[in-house]
């Protein structure tokens, strides 16, 4: 018993020292798993491809930006989107009246085929506001041969929102240039008649045709 009793403090001291050394080892070894991890990139998950944050829109392996997106990124569009609490608006770098229509109006019309934000809003609102300036008719009429094919492409687009923007732009242009658009309508009516069979756009296209007839006069 004395032998066992004499060993008790030794055993207790050994028990105290072992957890202590284990704690020390845990303190010194705990950062080790973290330190080699940063330089080693984890294997990509299939879900990462669906995460927009992991996709660089201008990366080497991504689709090249459209012409409108490239011009916008380089500052070729003299207006920017301003996010509001209720609705968005455009902020022009200079007065729209001072902006040359050629080639900006054509560029904005090409942007109607965009499907990503903010290009969708900038192109639609920019086209609308540019046609609202004083003397817009005199500036837009010479551009009709270039504008009509661009609007035709928007009206032929498979995306419903693109078609809607193209239709709105066509009515806005007709309200400004009036009968000057009549000679070009034959290039656009085919695309409108195709969508007229769609119940979603039947009423909107009918109203648009009525406005085109109104702005174009008896000849239309």
UniProtKB/TrEMBL annotation:
InterPro entries reported for this sequence: ARM-like, ARM-type_fold, Parkin_co-regulated_protein
SUPFAM superfamilies the record matches: ARM repeat
Skewed-composition ranges (Pro residues): 33-45
Residues annotated as signal peptide: none
Membrane-crossing segments per the record: none
Gene3D superfamilies: Leucine-rich Repeat Variant
Feature: compositional bias, Polar residues: 9-32
Coiled-coil residue windows: none
Region named Disordered: 1-61
Pfam families cross-referenced by the UniProt entry: ParcG
Name this protein carries in UniProt: PACRL protein
Organism of derivation: Phaetusa simplex
Species lineage: Eukaryota, Metazoa, Chordata, Craniata, Vertebrata
